[in-house]
Amino acid sequence: MQILGEQMKIVSWNVNGIRAGIRKGFFSWLHGYNPDMVCIQETKIHSDQLTDEITQTEGYFSYFFSAQRKGYSGVAVYTKKKPDNVIYGFGNEKFDFEGRVIQIIYDDLYVINTYFPNGKRDDERLKYKYEFYFAMMEYLNGLIKDGKEVLICGDFNTAHNEIDLARPKSNNKISGFLPEERILIDKYIQNGLIDTFRIMHPEEVKYSWWSHFAKSRERNVGWRIDYMFVSKNIFENVKKADILDLVEGSDHCPIMIDLTL
Q1: pLDDT tens digit string along 208-261?
Q2: 51 occurs within a structural domain
Q3: From CA 194, how far away is CA 242, in angstroms rounded?
Q4: Which residue range(s) make up the domain with 236?
Q5: Would 45 be classed as within a structural domain?
Q6: Would you say the pTM of this structure is higher than 0.85?
Q7: Dihedral angle at the C-alpha atoms of 168, 249, 41, 51, nearest 10 degrees?
Protein backbone atom coordinates (compact mmCIF):
# COMPACT_ATOMS: atom_id res chain seq x y z
CA MET A 1 0.00 0.00 0.00
CA GLN A 2 1.02 3.58 -0.55
CA ILE A 3 0.58 4.39 3.15
CA LEU A 4 2.85 1.55 4.27
CA GLY A 5 4.15 2.14 7.78
CA GLU A 6 1.54 4.71 8.72
CA GLN A 7 -0.74 4.27 11.69
CA MET A 8 -4.37 5.14 11.20
CA LYS A 9 -6.77 5.79 14.04
CA ILE A 10 -10.18 4.97 12.56
CA VAL A 11 -13.46 5.70 14.33
CA SER A 12 -17.04 4.65 13.58
CA TRP A 13 -20.00 6.46 15.14
CA ASN A 14 -23.74 6.50 14.61
CA VAL A 15 -24.33 10.18 15.34
CA ASN A 16 -28.16 10.02 15.14
CA GLY A 17 -28.29 13.15 12.98
CA ILE A 18 -25.20 15.08 11.88
CA ARG A 19 -26.83 18.48 12.49
CA ALA A 20 -27.81 17.47 16.02
CA GLY A 21 -24.33 16.04 16.52
CA ILE A 22 -22.67 19.29 15.50
CA ARG A 23 -24.88 21.21 17.92
CA LYS A 24 -23.78 18.80 20.66
CA GLY A 25 -20.08 19.32 19.94
CA PHE A 26 -19.18 16.77 17.27
CA PHE A 27 -16.45 18.93 15.74
CA SER A 28 -14.96 19.77 19.15
CA TRP A 29 -14.76 16.06 19.86
CA LEU A 30 -13.31 15.36 16.39
CA HIS A 31 -10.46 17.83 16.74
CA GLY A 32 -9.83 16.87 20.35
CA TYR A 33 -9.67 13.11 19.76
CA ASN A 34 -7.97 13.70 16.39
CA PRO A 35 -8.67 10.45 14.49
CA ASP A 36 -7.31 9.97 11.00
CA MET A 37 -10.76 8.96 9.83
CA VAL A 38 -14.25 8.97 11.29
CA CYS A 39 -17.03 7.01 9.62
CA ILE A 40 -20.46 8.21 10.67
CA GLN A 41 -23.88 6.67 10.20
CA GLU A 42 -27.44 7.96 10.34
CA THR A 43 -26.56 11.47 9.20
CA LYS A 44 -30.26 12.16 8.52
CA ILE A 45 -29.37 14.81 5.99
CA HIS A 46 -30.28 15.10 2.30
CA SER A 47 -27.64 16.07 -0.23
CA ASP A 48 -29.35 19.41 -0.92
CA GLN A 49 -29.17 20.27 2.80
CA LEU A 50 -25.39 19.99 3.05
CA THR A 51 -23.64 23.25 3.92
CA ASP A 52 -20.00 24.28 4.28
CA GLU A 53 -20.49 24.23 8.06
CA ILE A 54 -21.21 20.51 7.82
CA THR A 55 -18.84 19.41 5.07
CA GLN A 56 -15.79 21.55 5.80
CA THR A 57 -13.66 21.29 8.93
CA GLU A 58 -9.95 21.99 9.21
CA GLY A 59 -7.67 19.09 8.34
CA TYR A 60 -10.30 16.75 6.87
CA PHE A 61 -11.78 15.85 3.53
CA SER A 62 -15.44 14.87 3.78
CA TYR A 63 -17.69 12.61 1.72
CA PHE A 64 -21.44 12.21 2.18
CA PHE A 65 -23.90 9.69 0.77
CA SER A 66 -27.50 10.51 1.56
CA ALA A 67 -30.75 8.62 1.30
CA GLN A 68 -33.22 9.80 -1.31
CA ARG A 69 -35.72 10.29 1.49
CA LYS A 70 -35.09 13.39 3.58
CA GLY A 71 -34.27 13.06 7.28
CA TYR A 72 -33.44 9.36 7.00
CA SER A 73 -30.39 7.10 7.11
CA GLY A 74 -27.24 8.41 5.37
CA VAL A 75 -23.51 7.85 5.87
CA ALA A 76 -20.45 10.07 5.71
CA VAL A 77 -16.69 10.04 6.22
CA TYR A 78 -14.24 12.67 7.42
CA THR A 79 -10.66 11.67 6.61
CA LYS A 80 -7.29 13.41 6.82
CA LYS A 81 -5.78 11.58 3.87
CA LYS A 82 -7.45 12.07 0.51
CA PRO A 83 -8.64 8.68 -0.79
CA ASP A 84 -7.56 7.15 -4.07
CA ASN A 85 -11.23 6.54 -4.75
CA VAL A 86 -14.64 6.93 -3.14
CA ILE A 87 -17.53 4.60 -4.00
CA TYR A 88 -21.04 5.66 -3.06
CA GLY A 89 -23.09 2.57 -2.30
CA PHE A 90 -22.07 -0.97 -3.22
CA GLY A 91 -23.76 -1.41 -6.58
CA ASN A 92 -27.13 -2.65 -5.34
CA GLU A 93 -29.93 -0.19 -6.08
CA LYS A 94 -32.36 -1.96 -3.75
CA PHE A 95 -30.24 -0.74 -0.85
CA ASP A 96 -28.21 2.14 -2.24
CA PHE A 97 -31.20 4.48 -2.52
CA GLU A 98 -31.34 4.46 1.29
CA GLY A 99 -27.79 5.82 1.55
CA ARG A 100 -26.35 3.02 3.67
CA VAL A 101 -22.82 2.45 2.33
CA ILE A 102 -19.84 4.61 1.43
CA GLN A 103 -16.42 3.14 0.60
CA ILE A 104 -13.11 4.91 1.09
CA ILE A 105 -10.27 3.30 -0.84
CA TYR A 106 -6.51 3.59 -0.42
CA ASP A 107 -4.71 1.28 -2.84
CA ASP A 108 -5.91 -2.21 -1.77
CA LEU A 109 -7.55 -1.07 1.48
CA TYR A 110 -11.34 -0.76 1.39
CA VAL A 111 -12.86 1.05 4.37
CA ILE A 112 -16.57 0.31 4.06
CA ASN A 113 -18.75 2.52 6.24
CA THR A 114 -22.13 0.83 6.62
CA TYR A 115 -25.46 1.48 8.27
CA PHE A 116 -27.32 -1.83 8.38
CA PRO A 117 -31.14 -1.68 8.33
CA ASN A 118 -33.18 -1.87 11.51
CA GLY A 119 -35.68 -4.73 11.51
CA LYS A 120 -37.87 -3.70 14.42
CA ARG A 121 -40.63 -1.88 12.52
CA ASP A 122 -42.30 -4.88 10.89
CA ASP A 123 -41.68 -8.20 9.13
CA GLU A 124 -41.05 -6.46 5.80
CA ARG A 125 -38.20 -4.40 7.24
CA LEU A 126 -36.80 -7.48 8.98
CA LYS A 127 -36.75 -9.28 5.64
CA TYR A 128 -35.05 -6.24 4.08
CA LYS A 129 -32.43 -6.36 6.84
CA TYR A 130 -31.70 -10.03 6.14
CA GLU A 131 -31.42 -9.33 2.41
CA PHE A 132 -28.99 -6.48 3.08
CA TYR A 133 -26.81 -8.72 5.25
CA PHE A 134 -26.60 -11.36 2.52
CA ALA A 135 -25.99 -8.84 -0.29
CA MET A 136 -23.20 -7.16 1.67
CA MET A 137 -21.67 -10.52 2.53
CA GLU A 138 -21.58 -11.44 -1.14
CA TYR A 139 -19.92 -8.12 -1.96
CA LEU A 140 -17.31 -8.55 0.79
CA ASN A 141 -16.60 -12.12 -0.30
CA GLY A 142 -15.75 -10.79 -3.75
CA LEU A 143 -13.30 -8.25 -2.34
CA ILE A 144 -11.65 -10.81 -0.08
CA LYS A 145 -11.36 -13.29 -2.96
CA ASP A 146 -9.60 -10.57 -4.97
CA GLY A 147 -7.07 -10.13 -2.16
CA LYS A 148 -8.33 -6.73 -1.00
CA GLU A 149 -7.76 -5.52 2.55
CA VAL A 150 -11.20 -4.97 4.03
CA LEU A 151 -12.41 -2.98 7.01
CA ILE A 152 -16.18 -2.84 7.35
CA CYS A 153 -17.46 -0.71 10.19
CA GLY A 154 -20.70 0.79 11.36
CA ASP A 155 -24.01 0.17 13.04
CA PHE A 156 -24.95 -3.47 12.34
CA ASN A 157 -28.19 -3.22 14.35
CA THR A 158 -27.52 -6.68 15.84
CA ALA A 159 -25.95 -7.80 19.11
CA HIS A 160 -23.96 -10.96 18.45
CA ASN A 161 -23.81 -12.85 21.74
CA GLU A 162 -25.26 -12.61 25.24
CA ILE A 163 -22.21 -10.71 26.44
CA ASP A 164 -23.12 -7.99 23.94
CA LEU A 165 -26.29 -6.76 25.64
CA ALA A 166 -27.41 -6.19 29.20
CA ARG A 167 -30.74 -8.05 29.00
CA PRO A 168 -30.28 -11.02 26.61
CA LYS A 169 -33.09 -13.22 27.94
CA SER A 170 -35.75 -10.52 27.65
CA ASN A 171 -34.66 -9.55 24.13
CA ASN A 172 -34.23 -12.87 22.34
CA LYS A 173 -37.54 -12.45 20.50
CA ILE A 174 -36.89 -8.84 19.49
CA SER A 175 -35.17 -7.76 16.28
CA GLY A 176 -31.61 -6.92 17.12
CA PHE A 177 -31.07 -10.15 19.05
CA LEU A 178 -33.09 -12.73 17.16
CA PRO A 179 -31.33 -16.09 16.66
CA GLU A 180 -31.59 -15.61 12.88
CA GLU A 181 -29.85 -12.23 13.10
CA ARG A 182 -27.10 -13.54 15.36
CA ILE A 183 -26.44 -16.34 12.87
CA LEU A 184 -25.79 -13.69 10.22
CA ILE A 185 -22.96 -12.28 12.36
CA ASP A 186 -21.66 -15.85 12.68
CA LYS A 187 -21.65 -16.14 8.90
CA TYR A 188 -19.62 -12.94 8.50
CA ILE A 189 -17.00 -14.41 10.83
CA GLN A 190 -17.10 -17.78 9.05
CA ASN A 191 -16.51 -15.94 5.79
CA GLY A 192 -13.19 -14.56 7.01
CA LEU A 193 -14.01 -11.36 8.91
CA ILE A 194 -12.75 -10.67 12.43
CA ASP A 195 -14.66 -8.80 15.11
CA THR A 196 -11.73 -6.71 16.31
CA PHE A 197 -13.11 -5.63 19.68
CA ARG A 198 -14.31 -9.08 20.75
CA ILE A 199 -11.13 -10.85 19.62
CA MET A 200 -8.96 -8.38 21.52
CA HIS A 201 -11.30 -8.16 24.54
CA PRO A 202 -12.95 -11.60 24.77
CA GLU A 203 -14.50 -11.12 28.22
CA GLU A 204 -14.98 -7.35 28.40
CA VAL A 205 -18.50 -5.99 28.70
CA LYS A 206 -18.91 -2.71 26.85
CA TYR A 207 -21.88 -1.35 24.96
CA SER A 208 -22.19 1.07 22.05
CA TRP A 209 -25.92 1.90 22.10
CA TRP A 210 -28.47 2.68 24.81
CA SER A 211 -32.20 3.23 24.52
CA HIS A 212 -33.54 6.68 25.34
CA PHE A 213 -36.01 5.07 27.74
CA ALA A 214 -35.72 4.51 31.51
CA LYS A 215 -32.32 6.20 31.84
CA SER A 216 -30.73 3.23 30.09
CA ARG A 217 -27.37 4.91 29.57
CA GLU A 218 -27.12 6.09 33.16
CA ARG A 219 -27.76 2.50 34.27
CA ASN A 220 -25.57 1.11 31.45
CA VAL A 221 -28.37 -1.09 30.16
CA GLY A 222 -27.00 -1.19 26.63
CA TRP A 223 -26.22 -3.16 23.51
CA ARG A 224 -23.04 -3.65 21.47
CA ILE A 225 -24.36 -3.29 17.93
CA ASP A 226 -21.53 -1.24 16.37
CA TYR A 227 -18.58 -3.14 14.95
CA MET A 228 -15.20 -2.93 13.26
CA PHE A 229 -14.65 -6.11 11.24
CA VAL A 230 -11.42 -6.64 9.30
CA SER A 231 -10.32 -9.27 6.83
CA LYS A 232 -7.74 -11.78 8.05
CA ASN A 233 -5.00 -10.32 5.84
CA ILE A 234 -4.85 -7.12 7.91
CA PHE A 235 -5.82 -8.32 11.39
CA GLU A 236 -2.20 -8.56 12.54
CA ASN A 237 -1.93 -4.83 11.84
CA VAL A 238 -4.73 -3.96 14.28
CA LYS A 239 -2.90 -2.61 17.33
CA LYS A 240 -5.89 -1.51 19.40
CA ALA A 241 -9.68 -1.81 19.39
CA ASP A 242 -11.96 -0.04 21.82
CA ILE A 243 -15.45 1.29 22.52
CA LEU A 244 -15.41 4.93 23.64
CA ASP A 245 -18.40 4.58 25.90
CA LEU A 246 -17.75 7.80 27.84
CA VAL A 247 -18.24 9.95 24.73
CA GLU A 248 -21.73 11.44 24.59
CA GLY A 249 -23.66 13.29 21.90
CA SER A 250 -25.76 10.44 20.48
CA ASP A 251 -27.61 7.34 21.66
CA HIS A 252 -24.56 5.50 20.27
CA CYS A 253 -20.95 6.06 21.27
CA PRO A 254 -17.90 5.88 18.97
CA ILE A 255 -15.87 2.73 18.45
CA MET A 256 -12.28 2.71 17.18
CA ILE A 257 -9.26 0.77 15.99
CA ASP A 258 -5.61 1.66 15.49
CA LEU A 259 -4.46 0.12 12.22
CA THR A 260 -0.83 0.06 11.05
CA LEU A 261 -0.34 -0.47 7.34
Answers
A1: 999 999 999 999 999 999 999 999 999 999 999 999 999 999 999 999 999 998
A2: yes
A3: 14
A4: 8-260
A5: yes
A6: yes
A7: 170
